Amino acid sequence: MLDTATLTSRTDEILAAHSGREGALLPILHDIQAEFGYVPQESLPQIARALNISRAEVHGVVSFYHDFREAPAGRHVVKLCRAEACQAMGADSLSAHARAKLGVDWHETTPDGAVTLEPVFCLGLCACGPAAMIDGKLTARLDNAKLDTILGDLA
Amino acid sequence: MKIYLPLDSVAVALGADDVAQAILAYASKMGVQIELIRNGSRGMVWLEPLVEVETSTGRMGFGPCNVADVPALFGDLSQHPKAVGLIDALPWMAGQTRLTFARCGVIDPLNFSDYTEHGGFAGLARALDMASGDIVAEVTASGLRGRGGAGFPTGIKWKTVADAKAAQKYIVCNADEGDSATFADRMLMEGDPLTLIEGMVIAGLATGATKGFVYIRSEYPIAIDVMEKAVVLARAKGVLGASVMGRGPAFDIEIRVGAGAYVCGEETSLLNSLEGKRGVVRAKPPLPALQGFMGQPTVVNNVISLASIPVIMAKGAAHYAAIGLGRSRGTIPLQIAGNVKYGGLYEVGFGLTLGQIVDDIAGGTATGRPVKAVQVGGPLGAYFPRALFDTPFGYEEFAGKEGLIGHAGLTIFDDSADMLAQARFAMEFCAIESCGKCTPCRIGAVRGVETVDRIAKGDAAAIPLLTDLCATMKSGSLCALGGFTPYPVLSALNHFPADFARVKEAAE
Q: N or C, fewer C-beta in 10 Å, chain A?
């Protein structure tokens, strides 16, 4: 658990770094998530005060965008591309395999907290699909075996 | 010994970083002096990671290279098992008209003198000597239309912003390239970022804007990194700052990162996102050109539109306008993707037929099976059957066949594709990504999935319902997400009716 003092002081530092920036909420939320791994509810009033908007408005933005998490993810985040170009190369069966192998559905985390599985709609790797982003790292031309090897290395 | 290896996302996703380490390690072990340059991609995805070695006759290519192929790079190059010959002589490269992508894959993306030695800033230098109205006129004369998909004449948009009176105007580059099968923006930003910066600066000179934003999707970490470094470099060299090149007005650029919302590729929703709001679509009018970012006059252009400006200014509008077909002037970076033998980016004048692109340039499918359908223009584009392969690549030509060219991405499917499943996915995707502002999109997409499911269960009475729903979405949605989702759905239905003729399950 995050302790409140750390959360408040780090959030203050992030807010200060973006002070005066036009339309700063997204950059702020990206930094908050990079710092804490998610956007803690407790940080919302503080962000709202700094930007002179309501807490509901901040919540509205956090909940609109797929990237922002309201709870921590697993230790590893596996994003599999579900878009058409990857579908043409078997992304649907690859993702079915991944879900069965991990025993989770989209947006879920394995019970041991190791892996969160997310869909992503296009990584711009459309001529070498199926593609994925694993802990921020890109990989392509996946098949079941290659994905199994990658998943096997995630603990 | 000069060796090139792309830092492009495709190359990296296929192991380029490991190859780079192996090259450095082997060179040091052998005591060979090398210079390893991480360039952009040439766009030949099937050859990535593509290593290039500079020789007296030109740059020799080796690909796809893995770590095991590294030692042979230091031996007799002609005997290398992955040798593909001189890059510029390859049919894929020789057949192109590279204007916007002329430097991509050739230069070190973050080397300022490399950029200028390859023609960089020639367009900006000319623009600095011109009156702003003349720059706008030049862009209008080039016939350049918005490469993001809408195809709106860039010069007319610029003129609207130039004529608007305001204390602050903005140039916003839409780099939220979310359409599947499109990667031209990414490749350009990773391989030649200064071209985009140069184009934005010229847009600033032409319209009186002094601040620019590049809104890049978060799914593009390498493009974000390269663009951020390029902006720092351009500031240090005086291209950006209080006075452009030391003799122009002020212009600066800020890189902003999206947060995984497809709809933010729509210009008004992108502006809301930039302002720190939910990425909800705005009703037009007012046009962003008059009331855009923070209510101020704003040019919102796609990466490729802006990156085409420097070459138009350098070579002149007439040179650009001489290429193309009908009202589609200049070149278009085709992005050939999906189940494809030779996939990648191919910049060429408008006018090739879909068949020439799919069969001759791309060589058909990767699986070797027959091509069943090609989706042109991303998730909101129509599926084209072979019967329409004679359609020439141009804005009006594709519109005339109930399709669109969009951002010029093409996804090839082989005969194993189930077009009913593709139609269902189009609706599902729209439901997931809808911003929720207008009802036809928000509710229609959900009902669309349900209706396709009814058809899948053999309920033929649901087919006219689907057609009707598509008509409502097409004419009633605020933006292209709800408005264009009917394109893939109806094209799948109309061109592949057999896939929708399902037999009722026995249980019913």
A: N
